[in-house]
Design brief:
Four Helix Bundle (Hemerythrin (Met), subunit A); seven-stranded mixed sheet; 319 residues; Rossmann fold; 2 domains; binds 5-S-methyl-1-O-phosphono-5-thio-D-ribulose
């Protein structure tokens, strides 16, 4: 399944803000339109916004100038910049923009398939896995990362059970559940605050999450709440895996302190479906991501394999 494609005239996206209740597709024909869809999270998830932005470049009159409109749509996920820069590089080398974007899309699909397969090797028959946010085909455009590994393990015939964090405030757990239902993967949704209790009850064998940006030292930006899960997992000696294609790794950023963490509108916390649930006058802090220190991560999984330390990830890229 795919979350983003190009019709020849428009970027076509499954509108993730309407899921899981309505499966509707939208078509965008301008750079600004694609950037707004990314900002408003109609398309979300690091690899998927990369693919959307790559195709968004098709509408640029002056690609070098307009690239920033797409790159700045969301600040944390590095795939966005990597995808746009890839298209710019290909244009400088004389490639046509549609071909360049299609090449990024294809490479992303291949990488996410491998990430899913490599991640599935970490899942044993009978295991219970906790996941956070949405990291399926919706987030990765194809296959997924953490959820891709979980679904692959299920398709391999392993009997698994998934605990799906609700993921306040945007409730990406709802679309993770929607993807798991489509694939008949047994799961329960839990409130984010339930994770520690379930871990203590021996209900979780591993935690699998995606990433928006992995710094050179392995510190990882991912959906808010990921850091807390890593601390709980460490306390309970539960393996904590980060699954992401190399396009989500950023060798140019030394450590997590230098990663820009997106802060979103407080209404995402104060309201549910447009209905205010907090008293007028109350304010909220709404960080979209947090940073998990590398020391809390048992292994990184990318398209090249499973790596027990970030040094091995970088060593492998040089081989
Ligand atoms: O704010 P979102 O929904 O775009 O955040 C997405 C995540 O944090 C995902 O875990 C991450 O992008 C990995 S997606 C394969």
């Amino acid at each position: 399944m795919k979350a983003v494609d190009f019709t020849g005239e428009a970027v076509r996206l499954i509108d993730q803000s309407a899921l899981p209740h309505k499966e509707q597709w939208i078509e965008l024909k301008t750079v600004e339109g694609v950037a707004t869809a990314i900002k408003e999270m109609k398309v979300r998830g690091a690899p998927a916004i990369g693919v959307a932005a790559a195709y968004g470049m098709v509408f640029a009159q002056d690609p070098e100038k307009e690239a920033d409109i797409l790159k700045s749509a969301r600040p944390t996920a590095v795939d966005l910049a990597h995808a746009v820069d890839f298209v710019l590089d290909m244009l400088r080398n004389g490639m046509n923009v549609i071909q360049a974007a299609a090449q990024w899309e294809k490479m992303n699909e291949e990488k996410c398939k491998k990430v899913s397969e490599n991640g599935a090797t970490l899942i044993k028959d009978g295991q219970k896995i906790l996941t956070h946010c949405n990291t399926g085909f919706l987030a990765a455009d194809a296959y997924g990362t953490a959820l891709g590994a979980i679904i692959t393990a299920h398709k391999q015939g392993k009997k698994i059970h998934v605990y799906v964090d609700e993921t306040r405030p945007r409730l990406q757990g709802a679309i993770t559940s929607w993807e798991l239902l489509k694939e008949n993967v047994p799961h329960h949704v839990i409130c984010d605050s339930s994770a520690g209790f379930l871990m203590k009850k021996d209900e979780i064998d591993s935690v699998m999450v995606g990433a928006d940006r992995i710094a050179a030292n392995g510190d990882t930006a991912n959906k808010i709440g990921t850091y807390s899960l890593s601390v709980l997992a460490k306390e309970q000696w539960i393996p904590f895996y980060v699954l992401a294609p190399l396009s989500s790794f950023d060798a140019g950023i030394q450590n997590g302190e230098h990663i820009k963490v997106e802060e979103r509108d407080e209404r995402e916390v104060l309201e549910i479906n447009g209905m205010r649930i907090y008293p007028e006058g109350a304010h909220a802090k709404n960080f979209a991501f947090d940073i998990t220190p590398a020391r809390n991560i048992t292994a990184f999984v990318n398209e090249n394999g499973v790596f027990r330390g970030i040094e091995d990830v970088w060593k492998n890229t040089m081989e």
